[in-house]
Write a structure and sequence with these properties.
54% of the residues lie in helices and 6% in strands. It has helices spanning 26-36, 89-92, 101-179, 185-190, 204-228, 235-240, 249-258, and strands spanning 19-21, 47-49, 58-63, 69-71. It starts with 18 loop residues before the first strand and ends with a helix.
């Protein structure tokens, strides 16, 4: 599941290598980091594989619950593929004095009895830590999956809304083109204003057309068209927009009088 943190080492559990967690004791952890020849701060996920420990650093009898070898409580890694590797532990150890077999057996028995619980607790803690990491990773995976599904649903909803808006826009464009066939632009803009609060600005073309309509249908017909919502200037606007320079003396005066 994990990989070795040592420089120039790519071993992992996937190829059958056993990994060991960095010690929690600050002094032992510092020795491990120094021997690694790597400038970093170990995390709870940092590991070193079995290839970096001398044979003398493993328990001879005790095994982990998973069946792997166990490190001694004071084990130090010394085997690294670096330019300035640390000195081997076996060469630095002084020769042991010969002692009576009975005393040696007693020390070995007591030492094994004392160290075994510590090793078992360390393995249990390591296994528990791995289980916690897997549980956290699974929870995060489920959380991200749910967020992704929500985002996909939101995106699909926005796409549907965009398609509906595009259809409405095309429909409005067609309506506008149809209106442009018999209405001026200022008349089309007037259609968007409230019926009783229109403040439209009428062009000269619209005013002239409105005068012709009024002359054709009369005052009542003209006002009836305005009540139906047809965009036409009011009678007052028609009177105010009549320019004297456009009027011929007899004919236009009669037309204005008729208005």
């Amino acid at each position: 599941m994990g990989g070795c943190s040592a420089p120039n080492c790519s071993n992992s559990t996937t190829i059958g290598k056993q990994l060991f967690r960095f010690p929690k004791d600050p002094e032992r952890m510092r020795k491990w980091v120094i021997n690694c020849r790597r400038d970093f701060v170990p995390t709870p996920c940092s590991r070193l594989c079995q290839d970096h420990f001398e044979e003398s650093q493993f328990e001879e009898i005790a095994r982990s619950p998973a069946g792997g070898r166990k490190l001694k409580p004071n084990a130090i890694p010394t085997l690294f593929d670096v330019p300035d590797p640390p000195s081997p532990i076996s060469a630095a150890l002084p020769p042991l004095k010969a002692e009576p077999a009975e005393k040696e057996q007693t020390l070995v028995d007591h030492g094994y009895a004392r160290r075994q619980p510590r090793g078992g607790e360390a393995d249990e803690a390591e296994a528990g830590g791995q289980r916690n990491e897997e549980e956290i990773a699974c929870r995060l995976c489920q959380q991200y999956k749910a967020q992704l599904e929500q985002q996909q649903q939101h995106t699909a909803r926005l796409q549907r809304e965009a398609e509906e808006m595009k259809k409405k826009l095309n429909k409005l464009n067609k309506i506008e083109k149809g209106l442009q066939m018999f209405l001026f632009d200022d008349q089309i803009r007037a259609l968007t204003l409230a019926k009783r609060s229109r403040r439209a600005v009428w062009s000269q073309e619209t005013v002239l057309t409105a005068r012709r309509i009024r002359g054709a249908v009369g005052v009542k017909g003209y006002e009836f068209l305005r009540e139906l919502g047809y965009p036409l200037p009011s009678y007052r606007t028609l009177c105010n927009r009549v320019e004297p320079k456009m009027m011929g003396p007899p004919a236009m005066e009669e037309e204005v009088a008729a208005i």
